[in-house]
Amino acid sequence: MDNEIEIESSFSLPELDFSDPPAGSDRRTFMVRSAMATAIAALGGVPNPLWAQSQAGPPLGSQGVDPNLQVVKNSKGPVMTLVDEFYKVGPGPSSSHTIGPMRITYDFYQRAIKLPADQLARATALKVHLFGSLSATGKGHGTERAALAGLIGHEPATIDPVAVLDKMAAEPDKVYPVKLGPKTIDVSLKDIIYDATKGDFHHPNTMIAKLMAGDKVLMEQEYYSVGGGFIEWKGYTPPKKNPRNIPIRR
Predict the structure, then answer these.
(1) Of 4, 116, 123, 138, whose CB is crowded by the most CB atoms within 10 A?
(2) Does one domain contain both 47 and 87?
(3) Are residues 169 and 135 in the same domain?
(4) Is 15 exposed, middle or buried (0-12, 13-18, 19+ CB in 10 A)?
(5) Contact 45, 36 (CB under 8 A)
(6) What is the per-residue DSSP string for 65-90?
(7) Residue among 204, 202, 212 nearest 235 (CA)
(8) Are residues 35 and 102 in the same domain?
(9) What is the CATH number of the domain that holds 218?
(10) Is 44 helix (H, G, I), strand (E, B) or coil?
(11) Please, which pLDDT band fits residue 65 given cuts at 50, 70 and 90?
């Protein structure tokens, strides 16, 4: 046709240098991204050269995380865990900000009910303090509702999110009875306290749970929601696991 216009594409894929990571980036992450970019190009796609060479975030444990936490130690070597630990069942939207806090307060509740009866008889309140990222972004993740649900005896794997968590959101002033041996005390969302967002925390997702007798602390435990629904606490010792009995060929 006389008015046909021929358009020639001037786009060309820039040559990528995958030999060395950019300064300040994590080498392992850089190599993985580079390999994926190369694979996309080989299949006929056009990778984003900036994506392959973008700087990785700081490795776990380099910014305000206690190197003694088990999750940091595991990041430096093989991790032995069970399938039912690896795959968590629970309400969203976040394993670290929803499931983890519920597991933490449920753990604290289980510890509290094992106290001697004379101590439990003096109990007047349960308090949970959220620190760091849990305090800064917890509202959007429903952290306070998850923490309250654990205190009143709910676990992530069996809780009904609609009947419990959604109802808490609809009734923010509701009071819930918690039976601690011979004593029943009342708890509510007001007992979940959004505390300091910045500080010298062992982990960005730090929680402190307290059983109170008036102004006196009967029991206190510091916890960390370390990601993936896993939790640790101050003085945590990982459970002993038997070595694998299935040989792995290399």
Answers:
(1) 138
(2) no
(3) yes
(4) exposed
(5) no
(6) --TTSHHHHHTTS-----HHHHS---
(7) 202
(8) no
(9) 3.30.1330.90
(10) coil
(11) confident
